[in-house]
Specification:
Elements lengths: L3 E5 L4 H13 L2 E9 L4 H14 L2 E7 L5 H4 L17 H15 L4 E3 L6 H4 L5 H13 L8 E3 L7 H10 L22 H12 L9 H4 L4
Parallel strand pairs: 1-2, 1-4, 2-3, 4-5
C-alpha cells in the first residue's frame, strides 16, 4: 500500500493541522504550496516556517498568472468579505497541479484542509465537488498509481479544528489566516473574525494574535 502523502499548504491553521495529521497517518509526507500573483509574503513565510518546523519538504510552485479577484476585477467597488480572496477554479487548478506532482513522484494521497463550513462560502469546496474531482483524477490517469484527495477536516467545524491542532501539537503561533499583508493579523477580515470567535468560544488564547486584536470581536 502506498503510504505517501502530499499536503496542500497555505500557511493557515487548517492546512497546518492537516500537515501534522498526515505525519501521523502516512509514512512519507511532503507539502506543496502555490505562489500566485501578489500572494502576501507573510503567508508564504508562515508556510515555510511550518513545513520547516514539521521537518517536511516544501515544494513551492510559482504561478504568477493566477490572480485573486481583487487583482483582476475591473469593478471600481472594493471587493470585501470572502470574495476578496476568490480565485476562479482555484481548487481545480491547485489539485490538478498537485495531482501531477504526486503522480510523477509516486504519491497516492493529496491532503487538503477544507473544513465543513467552507462549502457554504466557496462552491468548489463542497464534498460533492471533491467527489467529482476524485473521479476526474482517476479518469485522467493512464497506467500509473491511483491518486485520491483526502480531506481529514471535511466534517469539522473551526472549533473542532482548533482542538485537533492542539492535540497534534501544531505550531499555531506560526500560522497565518489573515488576508492582509501586515506585521500582525488585522482582526477584521472574514478569516480573522472566524478564527477569533472560535478561540474565544473555546476560552483559549490564540498564540498567533495579541490581546488588542482579540478584543475587536467584543
Amino acid at each position: 500500500m502506498n503510504k505517501k502523502a502530499l499536503v496542500l499548504m497555505s500557511g493557515g491553521l487548517d492546512s497546518s493541522t492537516c500537515l501534522y495529521w498526515a505525519k501521523d497517518n502516512f509514512d512519507e509526507v511532503e507539502a506543496i504550496t502555490f505562489n500566485y500573483y501578489k500572494r502576501i509574503n507573510v503567508e508564504k513565510k508562515a508556510t515555510r516556517a511550518i513545513a520547516r518546523q514539521a521537518d517536511v519538504k516544501l515544494n513551492e510552485v510559482k504561478i504568477p498568472f493566477i490572480k485573486e479577484k481583487m487583482h483582476y476585477s475591473t469593478s471600481k467597488k472594493t471587493t470585501g468579505g470572502s470574495l476578496q480572496s476568490y480565485i476562479p477554479l482555484r481548487n481545480l487548478i491547485f489539485y490538478s497541479m498537485a495531482g501531477y506532482y504526486a503522480q510523477v513522484n509516486n504519491i497516492s494521497n493529496l491532503v487538503g484542509g477544507h473544513k465543513a463550513n467552507d462549502g457554504k462560502i466557496f462552491k468548489d469546496a463542497t464534498k460533492s465537488y471533491f467527489r467529482k474531482m476524485n473521479e476526474l483524477i482517476l479518469q485522467g490517469l493512464a497506467d500509473s498509481i491511483d491518486c485520491k484527495i483526502v480531506l481529514p477536516l471535511k466534517d469539522k467545524s473551526r472549533l473542532e479544528v482548533i482542538r485537533m491542532a492542539n492535540m497534534l501539537n501544531v505550531p499555531i503561533k506560526l500560522t497565518w489566516s489573515c488576508h492582509k499583508q501586515r506585521k500582525s493579523p488585522c482582526g477584521s477580515c472574514y478569516s480573522c473574525i472566524e478564527r477569533l470567535r472560535a478561540f474565544k468560544l473555546l476560552r483559549l488564547r490564540d498564540p498567533a494574535l495579541n490581546i488588542m486584536i482579540r478584543e475587536k470581536i467584543g
